[in-house]
């Protein structure tokens, strides 16, 4: 058996998220369908670095699978792309050791949340950015973001409907900066993230940027460990899983 | 009766073009549906600067309509936007004289064709750009474009299935330039355009940029007046009706 690691982008708009769900169009299902066809009907399962929610995009999601087919490593991307729908694109395929595991071996993940920060909406970016018409105080947001960096119990940023026990994660970096094209981008890099954690952090930073919440409240919100103290979850379509590092 | 002029953007991806067709989702139909609802079921028709094909986008399409409702001018945009689907957005609404006509009074139209010019595709721009993986010779394209500028019979750039008699139009400007974000943009400004004219010009410029056709052939193609001599029609999704000037 050969183990293949693939780096994949997808536009989350038309998917019910990453993970297979009965009767729904999901990223995993589309990829497994194509792989199974390539293996003449023998079911092939893929293992990703983690799931993404409905509407969330990926530029550099990673998954692995095993195969008995004898295809050169870079050919896998080409073969898959020729059969995948046009909202999924494999950037790269490479042989990895039997030991490699796309979920267990993750060292860092980077997410980016794109905000369209101008008075007028842009319908051409409506599925990739969250529109914020009012001005944001980026200095306040960056001040608050500094309190998130580090190793903490992030229960305050975890959606209620999860059964993960250990809520300690490490955030290595958060920055909020103006891009060109009227966008403001929140970059967040961490060891891993709880369910909806990035979107809840984004929602809380937005309240701080709009002066609905003081930036020095962030440390207390984390320490309190109560989801109720953080702000509303930002919508999924502004979020992109940017990169996974092993 | 009050005459209202509206400037409208739409994402052409999910429409069967601008113009009403029985049983199809079109831009005109969606806007007229909302206006008719606002007028308590009395049919309201809109008149645009011209139609756009299925998949073609608009940033600054213009239409007019007449109303007996007593609503302040800038309120029309807000009222319409609150009821329109999220792939249509009215930028501006203004009162105009009874004499104004969105089609007959057009002085200039600007179209832009967006090419993604890099080896890798970008699935997040797949519905707004045409992907061209090989390098383009912009100098050759600009040289050929200069021959298009002026007043000519443009039969060579007109789709066969049209019944327009007079095929003389004036092109004021064409330029092909690198934008940031790996895009190359073809800007074309003219008095008006024949059916699929911009897309056929784009296809011909692409063949020149790829050295499949010599740039000095352009003048002869126009003079010959034969659609067969021009290149294939570029796909609709790279094209945006940028601006209409009155």
From TrEMBL, chains A, B:
UniProt keyword Isomerase, yes or no: yes
Enzymatic class: isomerase
Catalytic activity: uridine(38/39/40) in tRNA = pseudouridine(38/39/40) in tRNA
Binding site for substrate: 111
One GO MF term attached to the UniProt entry: tRNA pseudouridine(38-40) synthase activity
Span of the signal peptide: none
EC number: 5.4.99.12
Residue ranges occupied by any Pseudouridine synthase I TruA alpha/beta domain in the UniProt entry: 8-105, 144-246
Alphabetical list of CDD domains matching this protein: PseudoU_synth_EcTruA
Record carries keyword tRNA processing: yes
Record: active site: 53 (nucleophile)
Quaternary structure and interacting proteins, as annotated: Homodimer.
Name of the protein described by the UniProt record: tRNA pseudouridine synthase A
Gene name for this UniProt entry: truA
